[in-house]
Design a protein that fits this description.
Elements: H1 89-119, H2 130-151, E1 193-198, E2 204-210, E3 213-222, E4 226-233, E5 236-245, E6 250-256, E7 259-267, E8 273-279, E9 282-290, E10 296-302, E11 305-313, E12 319-325, E13 328-336, E14 342-348, E15 351-359, E16 365-371, E17 374-380, E18 391-392, H3 393-411, H4 417-443, E19 456-457
Parallel strand pairs: 1-19, 17-18
Antiparallel strand pairs: 1-2, 2-3, 3-4, 4-5, 5-6, 6-7, 7-8, 8-9, 9-10, 10-11, 11-12, 12-13, 13-14, 14-15, 15-16, 16-17
GO cellular component, one term: membrane
Keywords: Repeat
Biased composition (Low complexity): 8-22
Length: 458
């Protein structure tokens, strides 16, 4: 099964808090862009998403080796020529006579056609001349002859055209495509039940099959990299299961069509943990990402990154609550420093940008327009008319209110702990059932009275 994730990067940490309380410069804000959630892939090779799609080669002598023909759609199939039966002497003589009369009939028809033009009524208003009559008769004859050749091509007096105009296209025999040999009714390998299947790359599946595909409960061992234990539907992870990888990562939760989908917990080999909603193999929805250094994000995710409303607790004690966009603080939010300072206002790609207010722990404030994390224009109560750089303090206060409302919504997002716990319990149960099915499949390989079931190799 192919993973759609990447190795997790180290979580970004917040800067140390400001030391002085009197007029210190606003401390920089940590860039959380490196806090993206990544799922490590197999260290050796990509996971086959559909192992059942490989052609199965049976070791039993009763089945032939699958081969794939490569017919060309431009080469028609060969057909044997069947000699035509001998015709009677009378019929042959009649055909010979008609062939001899073909040329004479055609010449006679070509000469007689112009007479039809002179028999047709001519308007009295048009003057008649020899040249005009000749050209008109020739054009009339050619048009009539062409019409006869198209409508009656099989008559003996029809003249052949320079380009062949068949009435219908020649029928071609259909090309039949096939993959492998035809299934043998005497094959001894079961297609439904419990048995073991070994793949050419070293992977092994032990568990239930239905109509030749992994369906039910089973264990898939990836060669020297990990295993999956859980539910299968039509050769893909579907239901609940547990993934375990050699480097130490593990996922327990729901699957759909071979991808993590639903609720589950992924423990990274680095120590990070994500617990929450999944969609098409990525963290998507509400969840909690806890980093190895102690920092934690609780909020919304979209396609594997922080996106929406959420609050982040940094390892140095700083917190941010508000809006995220593309894994960065973007929109309106409130950043509280561990030393008591606070910024409330607008953000852009992880930096203070727009209207906002910075409050020191001694009560002093700096309000105005921020650019790239630095206050570049102070706000004033009385704006000088015509001043292009003045910022009205009332607009700054409106931005502060928006930031506070976004922070409140970020703390009020729904928690999914109960749903995740139920999914983990179901995954553990499915893994136990898969191990039982694997044991049953392995027992069928034990020789019984000198007979051993054939082992399918893909």
């Amino acid at each position: 099964m192919h993973h759609h994730h990447h190795l997790p990067t180290a979580a970004a940490s917040a800067p140390e808090s400001a030391a002085a309380a009197t007029d210190p410069p606003p401390p920089p804000v940590p860039d959380p862009s490196s806090l993206r959630i990544h799922i490590p892939s197999s260290p050796h090779h990509a996971l086959p998403s559909t192992p059942h799609k490989r052609p199965v080669v049976m070791t039993s002598s009763s089945t032939s080796t699958p081969t794939r023909p490569s017919p060309s759609p431009f080469t028609p199939p060969r057909r044997r020529k069947v000699p035509a039966p001998a015709a009677p002497a009378g019929a042959a003589a009649a055909r010979h006579l008609l062939r001899c009369l073909h040329l004479r009939l055609r010449i006679l028809l070509l000469i007689s056609l112009p007479t039809l033009y002179f028999l047709s009524p001519t308007p009295a208003i048009l003057p008649r001349s020899l040249l005009a009559d000749f050209l008109s008769a020739a054009a009339f004859s050619c048009a009539l002859l062409l019409l006869l050749c198209l409508s009656l091509p099989r008559l003996p007096f029809a003249l052949p055209l320079p380009l062949p105009l068949p009435l219908r296209r020649a029928r071609r025999s259909p090309i039949l495509w096939s993959i492998g040999s035809s299934p043998s009714a005497s094959a001894t390998t079961p297609t439904t039940g419990h048995f073991v299947q070994v793949y050419s790359n070293g992977d092994v599946y032990e568990g239930q099959f239905h109509r030749g595909r992994c369906t039910g409960s089973g264990v898939y061992y990836y060669y020297m990299s990990g295993r999956y234990e859980g539910d299968w539907v039509d050769g893909k992870y579907d239901g609940f299961g547990v993934e375990t990888w050699a480097r130490g990562s593990r996922y327990r939760g729901q699957y759909r069509q071979g991808l993590r989908h639903g609720y589950g917990v992924y423990r990274f080999y680095t120590g990070d943990v994500y617990a929450g909603e999944w969609s098409n193999g990525q963290s998507h929805g509400y969840g909690v990402h806890t980093c190895e250094d102690g920092s934690r994000y609780i909020g919304e995710f979209k396609r594997g990154v922080k996106h929406g409303l959420g609050h982040y607790h940094f390892r140095n004690g700083d917190t941010y609550a508000g809006e995220y966009f593309g894994d960065r603080m973007h929109g309106f939010g409130v950043y509280s420093f561990a030393n008591g300072h606070r910024y409330e206002g607008a953000w852009h790609e992880g930096r203070r940008q727009g209207l906002g207010m910075y409050s020191f722990r001694n009560g002093e404030t700096q309000a105005g327009h921020w650019q790239n994390g630095v206050l570049n224009t102070l706000s004033t109560q009385n704006i000088i008319p015509g001043s292009p750089i003045a910022v009205n303090h009332s607009k700054v206060l409106n931005a502060v209110q928006e930031a506070r409302r976004a922070a409140e919504k970020a703390y009020d997002i729904p928690r999914v702990d109960d749903k995740v716990n139920r999914a983990v319990a179901a995954a553990n149960k499915a893994a136990n059932a898969a191990r039982v099915a694997a044991v049953k499949a392995a027992q069928k390989r034990i020789p019984n009275n000198g007979d051993d079931l054939p082992l399918s190799v893909v």
